[in-house]
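It is worth pausing here to work through a concrete case rather than discussing structure prediction in the abstract. The textbook approach is simple: state the sequence, then state the predicted structure, then interpret. We follow exactly that order.
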Amino acid sequence: MPNSKSDFEEGMTGRLVMEGGNRQRKDNHRMVKRVLELTSLLCLATALFVYLFSEKLGFSEDTAFFVSIAFLAAGVGDFIVLKLWDRITAQR
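Step two, the predicted structure:
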């Protein structure tokens, strides 16, 4: 005959582990979103910085334009991934 107290304790332990795993997963998702936000903003700021200070950095106008476009594209890509992150990581 199973001990009801140990069955109860085992059931509670299992629930606590599952809840802890869900909480950790949510924390990880939040962290990834924050990193994506940060990298998106840094890429956009770098694009603006390179474009505005191209002469002081020693870039030609064409080079500064293409480098800025590359950082702008990376920032937009990060933003798109950020907006789609919940769909990308949805559990099926």
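Step three, interpretation. Residues 4-52 form the longest helix (49 residues). Residues 4-88 form one domain.
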